[in-house]
Amino acid sequence: MKKTILSLMLLACSVFAMAQSLEEAVHKLDNAASVKDYEALEKTFTTLTTQQPDSWLPWYYAAYCNAKIGFLYQEDGDKIEPYSVKGEEQIGRAQALLDSARQQQELSEVLTVASMVNRIKVFINPMTYGRKYGMLSEKYLQQALQLQPENPRALYIRAWVKYYTPKMWGGDKPLAKELAEKSLGLLAKDKAGTEPHWGKAENEALLAKFR
């Protein structure tokens, strides 16, 4: 009996430690800004996938880190491909852990990052990859917004796309501003923790372009 109680206590401590590790990593992610920051955190989240094999969050955050690196290397496309390859695999692993019928909010978050991962593939060579991966990125973003129209992260990506797309191809800077402001307002309702809550800094950076 004592051995059983001790085993349960050790298991509980282990689960608590893993949850705490994820929370610490996400907290560091909230303050990440450089390629070096995201590379280090991607390794941390990848390690956490082995400790929490049934959780979609470590895979999601690992993919998000690779997507963010791709955005930081937007003007240096030759460096992006390895990050896009890892990000694609990781976000696929996150999606595979979700029940698409019951976890629609979570799926919307995963599809948003899938859109980002395909967007960075466009940066590698816009002339070669723009049509294929631009369309895939748009497909995932549309699916994310269909599942959760008020997802602030999906709204931010829509705002980003509208801002940077030429007007002749559907770009719309006034709409981009409107969407970024809406996303920022919705983010005020998000709580810090392990669930996705990023987007404030990204929206603020986009809105600063209108000043």
From TrEMBL:
Position of the signal peptide: 1-19
Superkingdom: Bacteria
Record keywords: Signal
InterPro entries: TPR-like_helical_dom_sf
Protein name: Uncharacterized protein
Organism listed in the record: Chitinophaga oryzae
Organism classification: Bacteria, Pseudomonadati, Bacteroidota, Chitinophagia, Chitinophagales
